[in-house]
Fold this protein.
Amino acid sequence: MGMTCIALAAITLVSPRSGEVMTTITDEQIKVFAGSNTVQRAQILKEVNKKPNRLAWRRQRPLVMRWRTTEHEKGPWRIRIGTKDDLSDARDIWLDTETAKRVKAKDGKSSTWTYSIANPNLELGRTYYWQVWSRVKCSKHSCGFTYPDKCKCGRTKHGNISPVSSFSTDDTPPRWIRLEGRVSNFRDLGGWKTSDGGRVRLGLVYRGQGLNDNSVAGFEPGRNRLMVEDVLYMKKVLGIKTDLDLRSPREVAGMTESPLGEGVQFVNRSSSAYRHIVEKDAKKTMAENFRLFCDRANYPVYFHCIAGADRTGSLAYVLNGLLGVAKEDLERDWESTFYPGTYADKPLGSRSCSHFDRAFAKYGKKGDSLQKRIELYLLDCGVTPEEIEKFKGIMLERDVK
């Protein structure tokens, strides 16, 4: 790293282990997803989660990082994590000594430190590199507490930096994303396998809750739900270029700009959900919404209603269904919004996927796949075959192993 004067001695990375492949979704969701249908998944959920917590479900599993140090090392610490092996794109996490949990070895010669990143927002199928630095004090000069690469006098001769280690994430969707503000149910639309051996591309389309509250009286937009760091994350890291808002005119109260601010295109179209998507006005809106996804210049796109559930879930069902995602996976993704509340303690009802079965039954003939029926539905909405192919060309990865 260009600092040959610094000794690398006292910090050894323990976990994630070098080369380890980690899953990002929680154990509860893995168990529930194993059910082959909605009823089975609801029953499994009751067994694995007696006291459901909706917020705990809608996030990635924490990333637990451990490192071992010699006796004299006491922190504080700097964790660096990035996707490049030289850590040139690293995200830095600065820790006070009290933030990392310390366990001393019985021989008193070393300690193991643990820090858990509650919402890591990791990408799927990606290799990550990480490293731990200790903070040291320049004993001969007046720099005060610093890090080896930040000593003002440039003469720091000690300070410990671990070797770089790596781990990877598996490619099991969904990829949950957690913000600091009041926006949840946020996930990548991609990652799902398709019937032709492909996969829906990650990092292009995201779905979630509204970025601001609904208007209270219908004449003034609701309060922004985002923190400053959320805006930066969505614009700089996710690269969001389009905010597609599916709410009604009363809910948005004349909004003309996205809560993400300048540089993000704001599109508001009042949209329908469930079986109502086959009604005349709803089909017109569906065609307009779909065309937005046929232009590469609009990507990445974030689309939402207020809760990221009914209207958002219906559009997600259509988009991924057209791409060839299996019906069972469409249902798993749909249900993920409502787990663990709706299906954990109540009979399956108004929010089951059966509404889509009835909506698309009028399209195609016996034996046609759901993908074919959804394609025929979109054509009936006024979408052209060329537009459908443009969308597939943007969103599909072919021949995924």
Confidence is low (pLDDT under 50) at residues 1-8, 154-158, 340-345.
